[in-house]
Amino acid sequence: MKRSLLLGFTPYVVLVIGIPFANSTHVVLGMPLLLLWITVCVVATPLFLWLASRTLPDDDERK
After folding, report:
1. CB count in 10 Å sphere of residue 37
2. Sign of the Cα pseudo-torsion (44, 50, 53, 55, in order)
3. Where on the tree of life does the source sit, at the highest rank (predicted)?
């Protein structure tokens, strides 16, 4: 249960904590670094949530 909460909370923390560090004028892959950072976080969020759902016990195991 703790692992699934940690996996579910990770994208939010990475996005919020990383914004001040990624806020610069550098251009990476044709995008400002901040836009790239936000895009990667948004794209990675479903992966983290899928992993979090996989770590939850099944209904049969909880009973």
Report:
1. 20
2. negative
3. Bacteria
CB-based burial, 5-19: b 16+ in 10 Å, e otherwise: eebbebbeebbeeee
Q: Which two tokens stand for residue 9?
A: 């909370």
38 residue type, one letter? I
Tell me the C-alpha distance between 12 and 60, whole Å. Answer: 30
| Amino acid occupying residue 45 | T
| Rounded distance between C-alpha atoms, residue 12 and residue 24, angstroms | 20
Q: Which amino acid is at 29?
A: L
pTM (2 d.p.): 0.73
Predicted local distance difference test score (pLDDT) of residue 45:
92
Q: List 28's β-bridge partners, or say none.
A: 31
Per the structure block, which two tokens stand in for 35?
């836009």
